[in-house]
Specification:
mainly alpha
Amino acid sequence: MSNRFITPPENVRETLNCPPSRATNIGDISSITLPVEDQQLETYSSELYVDLLLEDKRTTERRRNESLIFKAHDQYIGSSGIAFFSDQRLVSISDRLGHRKLRDLLENIANSVNSRINCNTHLPAPIKFVEPSTTLQISEASAKLYITAYFENVHPVYPFIDRHWFEERAHSRDIALLLRDMLPFSALYHAILALGAQYHGDGSFEPGTGISWKLYQIALGLFPEILAAKESLVNVQAVTAMAIFAHNSSCIQIGHMLTAEAARMAQSLNLHRAISDNENVSFCQRTFWVIYFLEKTLSFACGKSSSIHDCDIGTPIPDTPKSVSGSFDWLRTICRFSRLVSKAYTTLFSISATLLPMASIRATIISFNCKLESWRLSVPEAFRPGNSLRSFNKLDNPSNMIFLRVHYHYYCAVIALARLGSSLPPAEAPYSLAERREMLLKACSTIIELTNQIDIAPYTPIWMLLSAPLSAMFTLFDFVIHNPADDKTASNLSLLGIAAGYFCRLEYASGGALQTAVLSDIAHIARDYIHDVKNGITARMANPTYAPHTPRAEGAIRLGSQTPLSLPGGPTLSFELPQGQTTTGDLYNPGDDFQFLMGSRFPEGVDLDELFCRFSPAAHSYPFE
């Protein structure tokens, strides 16, 4: 299978020295040659936008998040891979469709979110950081079952707990006293039981429901005690386990907070500096690196800078035997990826990155695609993105989860870099129009094809259940509407149908907790439009009104009205479209830019993952009440 969609153009490969050269002596960093593009970036990286703000009071504000959801300014491309449409893009699509069905669909979603956010509570009523009035009693047999399930299914992905140490205490006769007298261990214990219970049918897509949630609530109730206590490895591990649980659909509202708190505690305890208890050094290292990839990948997906300072990290990544079958070093692999996307955010997607000249952005995009390809090739073939999925057989649960994570992380990064490249003027774009289409369509089709491998279960992270497939669906929809004569339109419509079926199954399996069936309308809208185009039916919106563009700061990526509405050199296709429509629409139209946002419809700080989760507000309910 070709991988040219992540290979630099031939005329720049030698210039960029891709892949970067490595020292022949692992311990001798003096022989490492800095790639040309990294040398160029040093010229600009010393000046941050904050320096301009401090130096000159006339410097205006610059932001990427402006009352948006997953999360981009209408002038700047962010790192979030979630695809939404700007007001201008919605008008463009509605004009082509001849109706407002897409706009109405997205506005209904926005109104639903606003009604949730504007109520008198910040969290669903069941989510409180207080101990429950009645403690759930779990039999010894059930506890063993849940702990075993945790170490068989969760631990391979997040290998930060010493199983022997934990089970020795969890199965001791004095467990009741340990839970009473050692509150951080009690929080860790109940969080692990909660995670394991999900694999025995005791989980839930909603907060406050099921045995798993009741166990988790005990851990949440101890969270204030953990914050007040002297920090220790067990404290950090307890918050890490709580953060992992919070990445599922039942309590996504606190997932970011718990992940950030775990990162803060790990750095406060100096786990990143290799200053730790010698007896537990391996699990101090494991705990830090699990937090590292958890926080880094979440930050990139949300379009935010990481709270972990890479320049201060000195602790090595330990070996994690038996985490995955074979010789696959999963922890090192995902941490290398996390570092890669963290660097990409800093150099390409941050506020200060908007100061870079377009030539530097172009070179840096190519460089990161090269590094991404190098990372892909380092993954064992059985888990490697880019290989054929036709002969793929579903693996055991932890291996399947890791397989999906590797693929979804990789293709979401491909999408983020590709759309940033598409925002550049044609002369500065790092890849041709055909190459950009290939990389984006390949990424989206793979994400959608893999939805049949996703376990639609409470333990599956919400970004895998919802975010990545939704991004792929919206990207394909946009391409189909603006390129109805493309030779892959039929297969793209089929993929949209697969995505629609997946979202219907997701709502059904979640018992309506994830209200995603409405997204099937996207596929119907696209199919109806293509049917009308083929039959010569013209239906245009009268007097479309486009959202105005604001002036662009000098040196920023140009996406505004000065950029041509379509890229030159696009394919000329043969059959006739309705009057006024063209066949050369890019995957992203630089004139109004397919922006991965929904205008100003959402209040700041709302996450995509919350969009389709059922919410039952209770007035005057506060988390520490």
